[in-house]
Write a structure and sequence with these properties.
Layout: E1 4-7, E2 14-17, E3 23-27, H1 30-36, E4 41-47, E5 51-55, E6 59-62, E7 70-74, E8 81-86, E9 91-95, E10 110-112, E11 128-129
Parallel strand pairs: 3-10, 10-11
Antiparallel strand pairs: 1-2, 2-5, 3-4, 4-9, 6-7, 7-8, 8-9
Length: about 140
Amino acid sequence: MKKQTGKCYCGALKYEVVDAPIMKGLCYCNACQIVAGGSPQTFVIQPKVGFRYTHGDPKKFTRPDLPQPVTRDFCGTCGTHIATHRQGAEIVVIKVGTLDDPDSFGTPTVAIFAEDIREFHSVPEGLHVFQQLPPMD
């Protein structure tokens, strides 16, 4: 597997990932829409073991009021959202726009959290659409 690298907008936070993707898609959940300013987030899910920060330390945010919160890694300087971690899962959800070569992503294969799609969103044809999270086996 080719090593992928990425960074935040200002370059204070850099990372690398070396494992093959588990899933590539678009997330329409309300939280991702808030973080992205209204759009779905384009993501790639990778095994956590192949992901590491190579420069800087991310700030982390976990909402304490949710029953199954995720932790979001972001740059404390420019605010770029880099990755999301699910409690108890050995995966990392990387935001494709932070890859140094986002074209290497290819095309998404799934759309998740379709239950939160807004009238102004569109879903590309040919994607497997899931109302919530699909099975990850």
